């Protein structure tokens, strides 16, 4: 592909991060109407409409002082497979919270999410001068937990039984990645 239709913010081997566009709303609405997908994000039983996704894009798709959100695109096809963000950014203390959602189920288990997490962390450390990036994952989402470990995150704490899912209690796990010094 000689010319991309979206700007490349950060690029890896398999994916690149770009802007979330208004035209992405129908696909996001499709993903967030999938109850299996939203359950993995800890939003069991919730779904969203096209109008809600359009509003989300208007409110979140531009970089702000406290948040930056990106589209996760496959490099070879420029297909949108998910979104990722740094939120609750505190530039004074150099901390932020990472979130990621791979909505395209055909992209699950391919290493795309792990690469997107690494790219987003590199963006935070390099361009926002962050020191610590944290995230929360539910213990029932083992695939995400393993991906975060492979991306360099370590477990920093647990809230025992903080998530009720399918009639059972699960831990909410805090993970962090700290910028290497030197």
UniProtKB/TrEMBL annotation:
Q: Which Pfam families match?
A: Acetyltransf_3
Q: Which domain of life is it from?
A: Bacteria
The residue ranges of the N-acetyltransferase domain are: 15-180
Q: Which UniProt keywords apply?
A: Transferase
Q: What's an example of a GO molecular-function annotation for this chain? A: acyltransferase activity, transferring groups other than amino-acyl groups
- Signal sequence, start to end: none
Q: What is this protein called?
A: GCN5 family acetyltransferase
Source organism of the structure: Chloroflexus islandicus
